[in-house]
Design goal:
flat, 74% helix, mainly alpha, 341 residues
Length: 341
């Protein structure tokens, strides 16, 4: 089910003269994937009442929905239903049960399910590892990672990112560095989940230069990347690193490097410093740079610098609606409704 097509899918489903298990399961899965977990669970109940047979995908979807809702009671009821079917030994359903119990803070129940599984795959091992991490059992998460490898399973990016996060919680730099090496050898370092976890790891372990170096080398960054950097207290380090590249190593920064510093200062709320930094640049930012600054001004409510950024952005691209939308949002946040229109 395509995101944004939920209502259309519902109309089609309810308009079907004949429904089968596949159509029911497709709807339950689609609702769950589109953040409508409560409706997914309710539809599962309707499916039971209508007398249809569930398969591994039906149970996997509804158990995932229960985990997201922290619906422990309903999850247990569905588990009881699973036990009465042949799917109680299914690896897909077992992994979903481990995930559901872990999210509902019943880690012992998750452990029991995991230990009783006669077949395991990377998904089931990862579900147990993540469950330990989510419930504060970081040492157990690291131990089960090594156990998984001893059993011949290689981690994917999500597994490796999760165990690195557990090392970060333990401030275990030695083990984290081992996983960093593994990420490099396996190529999983290219995944943002792994890179973000490593930035956080080195930051929490006090290795600020390694943390910032990893951040700079990332091909793509998301909100988690920036949060990891700011959490590690790397604003000052970032500025020092930028300056040293110029003064000590003679490296001429490209525009992307300047925009990275604007974004770093802006997210930290240091907007006046960001303005001063821009004024000292060899050339003014491009559209991305001004939009980055304007977005930070909206978050931190700085009208003066926000207006400067918006005017500069409009001058570069007068037809671009982004500047008008962000500026209107900034006016609205400040209660200047006469300016919003």
């Amino acid at each position: 089910m395509w995101r944004g097509m939920v209502e259309e899918s519902k109309c089609l489903f309810h308009g079907l003269k004949e429904r089968d298990s596949i159509s029911w399961t497709t709807m339950i899965s689609g609702l769950m994937q589109n953040g409508m977990e409560r409706e997914a669970v309710d539809m599962f109940r309707e499916m039971i009442l209508a007398g249809f047979t569930m398969d591994q995908f039906t149970f996997g979807s509804v158990l995932t929905a229960c985990g997201s809702l922290l619906a422990f009671g309903e999850g247990k009821q569905i588990h009881a239903y699973v036990i009465r079917t042949d799917l109680k030994v299914n690896v897909f359903v077992g992994s979903a049960l481990v995930d559901m119990y872990s999210k509902c803070k019943s880690i012992k129940s998750g452990e029991t399910i995991f230990e009783r599984m006669t077949q395991k795959n990377v998904v089931s091992w990862t579900a147990m590892l993540v469950g330990y991490g989510q419930n504060g059992f970081s040492e157990e998460a690291v131990k089960i990672f090594f156990e998984m490898q001893r059993n011949g399973f290689e981690p994917d990016d999500f597994t490796l990112g999760s165990v690195i996060s557990s090392c970060a919680n333990l401030a275990s730099l030695e083990e984290g560095a081992q996983f960093h090496c593994q990420a490099l050898v396996s190529g999983l370092i290219s995944f943002i989940t792994v890179s973000n976890a490593l930035v956080t790891l080195y930051g929490k372990c006090g290795s600020m230069e390694d943390s910032y170096q990893l951040f700079v080398e990332m091909n793509t960054r998301d909100e988690v990347s920036w949060t990891a950097l700011l959490t590690a207290g790397l604003v000052e380090k970032g500025l020092q690193y930028f300056e040293s590249k110029i003064t000590e190593h003679g490296i001429i920064p490209i525009l992307d490097h300047y925009i990275c510093i604007i974004d770093l200062l802006g997210r930290a709320g240091r907007l006046k410093e960001a303005r001063n930094f821009i004024n000292k640049m060899p050339c003014y930012p491009d559209v991305v740079g001004w939009a980055t600054l304007l977005s930070s001004c909206r978050v931190h409510g700085d009208m003066e610098i926000g207006k400067w950024a918006a005017d500069s952005l409009i001058e570069l691209e007068p037809e671009n609606p982004t500047s008008y939308v962000l500026l209107s949002s900034l006016y609205a946040a400040k209660g200047k409704w006469n300016k919003v229109a």
